[in-house]
Design goal:
disordered C terminus, four-stranded antiparallel sheet, Helix Hairpins, 26 helices, about 650 residues, chaperone, three-stranded antiparallel sheet, protein transport, 7 domains, transmembrane helix, about 50% helix
């Protein structure tokens, strides 16, 4: 009858390894994630401080605290509590593993180690060591010592005797060689890697309760929360209700009737604010947005920071919706609102946004000085700037110049359509747009354009033409002293139809770009050898037109952070048909003529019932036969002529006599 009882790990020899392994599977990736998050936070803070114009908003201290708090996880949180408990459990398992001594019964039997002899020892040396050890550990000759009891001495003597016999006695040695032990096959124990007290006794209900809670409550809750969250939020991270409200506006309203104020209204009615700030109404949220644009304080600054920091994510979600409607006009208005919120500029003053985003500037100074854009600002030196803009000190004028110099402006110096491996644009082909970009300071538009180098089409570029889009350095955070968040600078790239102003491709995000041209001095910026030209490629999801002709487009580069940093370039696509010569060459290359009838291939084709060409020999025989027929015809005609001539020469009288 089989024994139905289970053997548990009562001596904690195995189950700590099992527990440590399971715990490590959780805490190792968890720890890596936390370390990477801390590194990212530190990098973001250092990157934002890498450029400092010296200007501070009135509530800069509160903004910096809010930024740090949103990036860093609170020390006292459930996440950190479970993280600490997990590491504590792993430490307990590790302590049990390193401080546990395996029982001697399960030790590997090594007679050489027991006798203390080398593996190359002779039988004489083995006997000598055995005599010494048998005298030392013989139970009848050794009394109890402080370090060993009598039972341990007897066990030791038995081990020495077994080791000696396994090396000298042939029968016992055969058992050792065959089974690894002088006593022959040993009993193998198979148990469960759990401590006995958890299964039997008082610990059993605890295990059942933990199992029930995890399987019945924790796991369904986690999976359900993840599933509901994935359904509630779009891929751009905005709530489905917020996306639905803006979608309805796009579907019902005319695009030219959707104004900046309408976008601000739907922004204030977002579902995110109802979840984050349930006590605030739509009008309260809109009042906070307007107060931020006008750079005015509110009663609860923390609520304002929560509202403003969420706006960029919402507006990016709106852009994704607008792209489905192909409305370039609404897209530009959304980006105008985003830039206004980032730089804290009222919607009624967008015409002067280029100057108002610079430190120490306001609408009164703009109106009095008539300096409302970068072009007018570029014509002023520090001395004129100090007096014209009524700045407090000359140091403030230096800050204004420094801030304006670090606003990047992109010029599209060249753009063309390209089919990989082809020199022309053919109908119904997959093409992309290649752009050459020159970055310069917003107040230094006179930088020369160096000679453009034609990109060599290597195998790597033919395999992945868009690898160059990811080769440049990541764009830094925007200089936005009034914005309570980390806002990454980027440009949205659009390909727009010239005729209907509809979006054809985009928006594509330009997030990597070399801004080293901004660090050039005035002397270096006029040297075209110092100017760096970048390449960006726009993938085309649509095929080229099926009819040959010339088509007109526009490329738009729109910044999400700065006014006056946008760029517009006209682009033409000249679609031509493939040359006829190439078609003839291809026809000759791929022409598969029929085999001749007197060849093996021809005979096989005849068996299959296919057509074959007549052999050249048969054709020559036919030619010879036709020539003979022609010659015979000629001879016959000649004989006939001769006969007629002879008959003509006869005398008619002879005929009559006959």
């Amino acid at each position: 009858m089989s024994d139905s009882r289970y053997s548990y790990d009562e001596k904690s020899e195995v189950w700590p390894y099992f527990g440590a392994t399971l715990t490590a599977l959780v805490i190792v990736p968890w720890t890596i994630s936390k370390v990477n998050r801390l590194r990212t936070v530190k990098k973001d803070l250092e990157e934002q401080k890498s450029y400092d114009s010296g200007f501070r908003s009135p509530n800069d201290d509160q903004i910096q605290k809010f930024k740090s708090r949103t990036k860093k996880e609170p020390f006292l949180s459930w996440n950190n509590l479970f993280f600490a408990i997990s590491w504590l459990a792993f430490g307990c398992f590790a302590y049990m593993i390193f401080n546990h001594e395996l029982s001697e019964e399960k030790d590997f039997f090594d007679p050489y180690e027991i006798l203390g002899v080398a593996y190359s020892a002779t039988e004489k040396e083995i006997k000598s060591h055995y005599r010494k050890l048998s005298i030392k550990f013989h139970p009848d000759k050794v009394r109890d010592t402080v370090n060993m009891t009598r039972e341990e001495i007897e066990s030791r003597f038995v081990q020495i005797t077994k080791a000696y016999k396994s090396l000298t006695d042939d029968e016992i040695r055969e058992n050792y060689v065959k089974y690894g032990h002088p006593d022959g096959p040993q009993q193998t124990f198979h148990g469960i890697a759990l401590p006995k007290f958890l299964i039997e006794g008082n610990g059993s209900p605890i295990v059942v309760a933990c199992y029930t809670i995890f399987i019945g409550f924790v796991l369904p809750y986690v999976v359900g929360s993840w599933w509901s969250g994935s359904k509630v939020y779009t891929k751009k991270g905005i709530h489905a209700e917020s996306a639905t409200k803006f979608f309805e506006i796009m579907a019902k309203e005319r695009t030219d009737e959707i104004s900046h104020e309408a976008i601000l209204d739907v922004l204030a009615d977002s579902e995110e604010y109802k979840i984050l700030l349930p006590k605030l109404s739509k009008n309260d949220i809109k009042s906070i947005l307007i107060a931020h644009l006008e750079r005015k304080p509110v009663k609860n600054e923390n609520e304002k920071y929560v509202v403003i920091s969420r706006t960029t994510t919402l507006l990016e979600g709106y852009l994704d919706i607008v792209s489905a409607f192909r409305s370039n006009e609404v897209s530009q208005k959304i980006l105008d609102v985003q830039k206004a919120i980032v730089q804290a500029i009222p919607l009624s003053q967008l015409f002067a946004g280029e100057v108002l985003q610079i430190p120490f500037m306001n609408i009164d100074k703009v109106k009095s000085s008539k300096v409302s854009n970068f072009k007018a600002l570029e014509q002023l030196n520090e001395k004129d700037l100090h007096s014209c803009l009524r700045l407090a000190t000359q140091y403030d004028a230096e800050k204004v110049i420094k801030a304006a110099q670090h606003i990047p402006k992109i010029d599209i110096v060249d753009a063309h359509f390209k089919i990989p491996g082809e020199e022309i644009i053919t109908p119904k082909a997959t093409a992309h747009v290649v752009m050459k970009l020159k970055v310069h300071s917003a107040i230094n538009s006179k930088t020369p354009t160096p000679h453009l180098v034609v990109e060599e089409e290597t195998d790597a570029i033919l395999r992945n033409p868009f690898a160059t889009n990811e080769s440049g350095p990541t764009l830094p955070f925007a200089h936005a002293p009034f914005f309570p968040g980390f806002h990454k600078t980027k440009w949205y790239v659009y390909l727009v139809g010239e005729r209907d102003n509809k979006i054809i491709e985009g928006p594509h995000e330009l997030t990597r770009l070399d801004l080293s041209n901004l660090e050039l001095t005035k002397e270096e910026s006029v040297n075209d050898d110092k100017i760096n030209i970048c390449t960006y490629k726009i993938p085309m999801t649509q095929l080229t037109p099926e009819n040959a002709g010339k088509y007109s487009f526009k490329i738009l580069l729109v910044s999400n952070s700065y006014f006056g940093a946008d760029s517009l370039h006209q682009l033409f696509m000249d679609v031509v048909n493939e040359p006829e010569e190439d078609e003839q060459v291809n026809a000759e290359i791929y022409d598969m003529s029929e085999p001749e009838e007197d060849t093996i291939a021809g005979q096989m084709s005849q068996l299959r019932g296919d057509k074959v060409k007549r052999s050249t020999n048969n054709e020559s025989d036919d030619d010879l036969s036709s020539e003979e027929e022609d010659l015979s015809d000629i001879d016959t005609d000649t004989d006939a002529d001769n006969t007629s001539d002879e008959s003509d020469d006869e005398d008619p009288s002879d005929k009559k006599i006959e």
